[in-house]
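Input chain follows. Return C-alpha cells only.
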Amino acid sequence: MKKLLLASTATAVMATSAFADGHADAVSIGVILGFTGPIESLAPAMAAGAELAMSEVTDSGNLMDGMTVNSVRADSTCIDAAAATAAAERLITSDGVAGIMGADCSGVTTAILSNVAIPNGVAMVSPSATSPALSTVEDNGLFFRTAPSDARQGQVMTDVIMDRGIEEVAVTYTNNDYGLGLADSFAAAFEAAGGTVTLVAAHEDGRADYSAEVGALAAAGGDVLVVAGYVDQGGSGIVQAALDSGAFDTFVFPDGMISQALTDNFGSDIDGSFGQHPGTDSEGAGIYHDMAEAAGFDGTSPFSKESYDAAALIMLAMQAAGSTASADYAEHIMDVANAPGEPIQPGELGRALELIAAGEDIDYQGASAVELIGPGESAGNYREVVIEGGEIATVQYR
C-alpha cells in the first residue's frame, strides 16, 4: 500500500505546528470546489455538505479542547490548473488551513496535490476526483478520496448498459484527465463484456457549436451515446446538438452529467436516458438526506454526501492524532474510516469524537457508506438513475 506517510519539509511542519499552537481554540479547513466552471451547479450542495459536518463538530464542543472549525472556501474552477493552484496556495499561506476538503475535478486535484499540498505537507480528501491515475499518484500519504475511481465506474456503467440489452454505443468525453480516464475504463470494460464501441471521441468545453462532433459520432453509429462530460459545459452542448440533429435521442450519463441542471436543460426531451453516479441507499444516506433537508439544501445532489464524509474524516483523524498538523493526522484517516470500531453515522460526529478521546475505535460509515481501500480511496457504491417525465428517478443501487 502506497499510503506510507513520509516526512514533509521541516518548514511546512513548523508552520503547521505554529498555527495549531497559536490558534488552539480554532482550526480552518479549506473547501476548494468549482464554484465557477463546468460543474458549478454541483458545488453548492457539496460545500454545504462539508460545512454541515464542520458545524456539527463545532456545536458538539468535542474536538480536542472545544476547538471550533471554520470553513474557508476557494474556487478550483474545475478546469484551470493554474487558477486552482493559486487558490490552494492562498488557502495554505494566507488562510492557514490545516487540511483541504477537495478538490473536485481530477485535473485540478492532481495539480493542487503536486504543486501545493505535497510541498506544504497538507492533507487533502477529495469527494469527487475520480481519475484512475490518482490511485497511483505519489502523494506522500497526504491524498484520500471518498468517491470511487472511474475504473470502478467504467465497469458499473457497462453493467447498467448491458442489463438493458444494449450492445453498441458511441462515446464522447471531455478532453481532460476525468473524461479520458472514464472513457478508457468504460471502453475496456464494455468491449471485454462483448459490447461494441463504435467511436471514442473527445470534445472541448466552451464551444458554441458541437454539430461536427455529433456528426462524427452519428456516422460511427451506436444505439446510445455515452456523454462523459460536464453538465454545465460541453456535455450539455453535445446533448443539445444531438437532439437538434436527431442523431441520438437516448444518452448514458455518468457522474459529471447528473444534476438538477440536466433536467432543467432538457426536461422530457431526454426521457429514457439513464446513467449512474456514486451513491448508496445505506442507513447513513437516509439520515444525511434528512439532515440536509433540515439545513436547506439537497442532500441527494451528486457528491454532497461524499463531501460531508471527506470533511468528517479530516476532523475525526485530527481527534485521533490529538493534532491539527497533517503530518500527524493523515496517517489516522484510514483508521477512523474502517473497521474495527463503533459504527458512526451522520449526525453522530460528536459521539465519535468522544469515543476517540476515550481511546475507543470507530468505524466511520457516514453518508456514503465509507470504506477506504488500497491507496486511500472509496470502494464505491453507485446509484443507477433514469430520466422519466423530465425528472431524475432512482432505478437501483449497485
